[in-house]
Structure to design on (350 residues):
């Protein structure tokens, strides 16, 4: 297949492309605007492949998108391009409306017109896969419930509201125009090549630099953590085997309080970099955990997300391979061994 991937230089997008090119014979067309969160260095290993094609392009640019579709004639779309950082959405919501809503609308329209012009056999094979987030469902609070595919949408931040809107657009294009779509909503991803603004890489790098490990509120917010390589394996499976017009929730089955995530990182660092000036010693009995601090909670901060993966398991046979303990260790080790990648990001943002 030829698969057009949007946002393929981002965290999840680059992991998806690395997976597809290494594990399948499919061809990839990567469309990415290369904002601050998109880095071709995350795709270094696949750049020489003759099955990989890159277009530096904003998905809001309809005319250029049409040229890409016409030239490459993709068999399907996996749409990951999105602004995703909640704090940034609070500071600049307009950017999220443009990228996540207008961008999805533009891509849907280009895909719809392209799909309509295909022959019947290729029309039946075509698929538009929209990748979204569990944050569209809102806040589970202190309940024991899990988000299912039937959970009501109750977004509480500009980011999650923009993603909820894009989900609704995809469903509308399916119901109104018949465009073949599938939709996935995932829990918090983590793993290699994650931008240093996100919780796990930020806390890992701050710790080894001796910077404060600041948590919002009391740090008791709960998230379900999904290792990115498990996620992209699930995405590819849904793209190929998921039922048309269906939604699938993808989670890691790893609910963790933010404070416990940070403490786990600290313990791994105590083991891996015992000679670091901020690790545990007679003069510093708390070690890296002594850097933990708390700041005022952010507006509209959801208390708990958790995903029910029953549908993925029963219909598609998917299960995460990594638990949190194995995944977080792999992640911390990756950041310790790949300083060139994140140091270049820090230099560019300075």
């Amino acid at each position: 297949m030829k698969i057009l991937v949007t946002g393929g230089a981002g965290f999840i997008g680059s992991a998806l492309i690395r997976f597809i090119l290494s594990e399948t014979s499919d061809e990839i067309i990567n469309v990415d605007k290369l904002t601050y969160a998109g880095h071709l260095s995350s795709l270094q290993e696949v750049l020489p492949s003759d099955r990989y094609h890159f277009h530096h392009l904003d998905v809001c640019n309809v005319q250029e998108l049409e040229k890409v579709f016409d030239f490459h004639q993709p068999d399907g779309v996996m749409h990951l391009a999105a602004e995703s950082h909640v704090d940034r959405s609070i500071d600049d919501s307009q950017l999220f409306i443009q990228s996540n809503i207008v961008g999805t609308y533009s891509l849907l329209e280009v895909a719809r017109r392209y799909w309509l012009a295909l022959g019947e056999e290729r029309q039946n094979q075509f698929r538009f896969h929209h990748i979204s987030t569990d944050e569209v469902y809102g806040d589970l609070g202190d309940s024991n419930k899990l988000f299912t595919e039937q959970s009501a949408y109750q977004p509480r931040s500009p980011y999650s509201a923009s993603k909820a809107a894009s989900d609704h657009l995809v469903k509308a294009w399916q119901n109104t125009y018949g465009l073949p779509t599938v939709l996935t909503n995932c829990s918090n991803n983590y793993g290699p090549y994650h931008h240093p603004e996100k919780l796990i890489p930020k806390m890992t790098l701050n710790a080894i630099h001796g910077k404060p490990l600041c948590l919002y509120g009391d740090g008791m917010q709960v998230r379900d953590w999904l290792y990115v390589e498990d996620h992209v394996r699930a995405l590819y499976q849904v793209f190929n085997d998921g039922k048309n017009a269906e939604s699938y929730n993808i989670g890691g089955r790893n609910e963790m309080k933010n404070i416990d995530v940070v403490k786990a990182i600290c313990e791994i660092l105590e083991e891996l970099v015992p000679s670091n000036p901020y690790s545990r010693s007679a003069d510093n009995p708390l070690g890296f955990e002594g850097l933990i601090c708390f700041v005022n909670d952010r507006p509209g901060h959801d208390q708990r997300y958790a995903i029910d993966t029953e549908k993925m398991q029963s219909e598609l046979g998917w299960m995460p391979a990594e638990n949190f303990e194995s995944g977080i260790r792999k992640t911390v080790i990756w950041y310790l061994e790949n300083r060139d990648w994140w140091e270049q990001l820090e230099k560019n943002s300075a």
Remarks:
- The two ends are 41 Å apart (CA to CA).
- The CA atoms of residues 213 and 292 lie 4 Å apart.
